Amino acid sequence: MDRRAHSSIPLASPAVRSARPAGLGPWLALGLPVLLMVLAPHLAPHPPDGFSLADRLQAPSLSHPLGTDAMGRCVLSRLLYGFAVTPAAAAAVVASAALIGGGLGLLLGMAGGWVDRVGMRIVDGGLIFPGIALALALSAILGLGMTALVVSLSAVHWAEYARVVRTLVVSELGRPYVLAATALGVRRHVIALRHILPNITHAVIVLIPFSLSWAILSFAGLSYLGLGPEPGSPEWGLMIAEGRAHMREYPRLMLAPGLTIVCLVIALNLLGDHLRARLAPGSDRLRL
Amino acid sequence: MSRLVHRLIVSVGLLVAVSIAGFAILPAMPGDAAEVILMERMDGEIPTREALAAFRADAGFDDIWPVQYLRWLAGVLQGDLGTSFRTDDPVLSDLALALPRTLMLGTAAALVSVMLALPLGIAAALRPGTWIDRLAMALAVVGMATPNFWLALLGMLLFSLTLGWLPVSGHGTWLHLVLPALVVGTALTGVLARMVRSALLEVLGADFIRTARAKGLHPARVVLAHAFPNAAAPVLTVLGLHLGKMFDSIVVVEAVFGWPGLGRLLVDAILARDGPVIQGCLLVIGTATVVIHLLTDIAVNRVDPRAKGAV
User: Fold this and answer.
1) What ipTM does this complex have?
2) Nearest Cβ partner of B286 from A129, A143, A261?
């Protein structure tokens, strides 16, 4: 669950990447979950919370392709509805962290001087602490539940974006086009938003799939521990926690959501590698 | 030398920040800490408004925050971390029990990952593109994508419930340590092996390696005595970063296996809204992070004096 590990180790060597043009494949990593998120109510054979104790712990069948859980709920339907919970929560975490952290990084980079130095000390301080432990502590203040968990995870994740964006901004500041704009008397905020921002966006986009992976793993983990959505939600971590009680007799209850997470995260990491190779070939060296 | 002094000053600053955050968590939590404490003293009776006001004034809850913080800090420095809301035990004794267990798990996990990652990474660097390289890569891909709590359950299912080799959960014998250490350790192995591989590959192309080979040194000696020490700094940096971050994984894995360490103490305290224990855990975790960070930096400088500002 390490945030840096996701982004600092390329999964494929450059030679492998260029030998095999990736085409549509990597985009499925993003497209398929979004599609499932939207279509879950139409694809799922049953409602996610329609429990009937008479149908409990049934083996996979035509009407319940992955069987039913201890409450008689259809496991496949819950997995499908889960796409609107875990990945959606992760997307919310990443979006807020990227906007807040990125905005702050842009401000710090543009400000320079002591503001930048003090700000980066705080960002660096935030980066060295174990994120999950910090998020746990925050949930002591914010309480339990889905929203609280999204807020705590964003609150430990923003520093990552602040650091990267600030580094990118500082390196752009020395480029001729910025010097030219400055010499022409373009105002600072226009330079930041219209000149620099479009030139660094691609390097920030590269981070997003890895960031999503981290958020999905962290969200599922903390919700497994009981800090996330209420019991009964088709959240994957929670489904694993519920499946644990019947792990010996019915391992599929805990295997299915786990495998879903693993596949999604592998796909996202591969998409991240693909994007990095395409958009920011040199960024393996960027300390993320 | 001045660099070390600089790092020390930064570390002290971080420790102050940790202590402020640790202090702030109790007042920031929902509910009134003064009321909870007074209720404990009155054996669960709900205090009257007057009694509460008197207690607040008496115990210093009405002082301004900086005063409360300094008083709390003075207590902490003398080893007084308050008492648990839940069990009435001194927080310090809870921490003193939990910390060694977490350190034990962390050390075992770090050993597992290093002992697996070094041979794997070295082999992958020496034979890039072969099955061993692919294995290291596959481990990294899967290790990064597998939720640790799920891996823990898989291990439990296989080794404890099916094969019956290891205890399901708890602690006591060294057998209890095996599964948690494997789960935390293997998650790191892939990443670390990839790091060893790429650091070593970079060094293996250097002129001094060609020279060493040209003068007829044994290939093992070239790799272990010439190449590896030069690749050690980036590997050590990554390892140091991960030792701090490994706690993320330890928190969850401890809770899954019922390993009574710091992570489980923290999770239990949060679920029970036990403020003083949360404070104590945060202080210990924060301090440990700062110390590990500093030690990593010093170690990297020792191993490779060229690595200025690597961390």
Assistant:
1) 0.84
2) A129
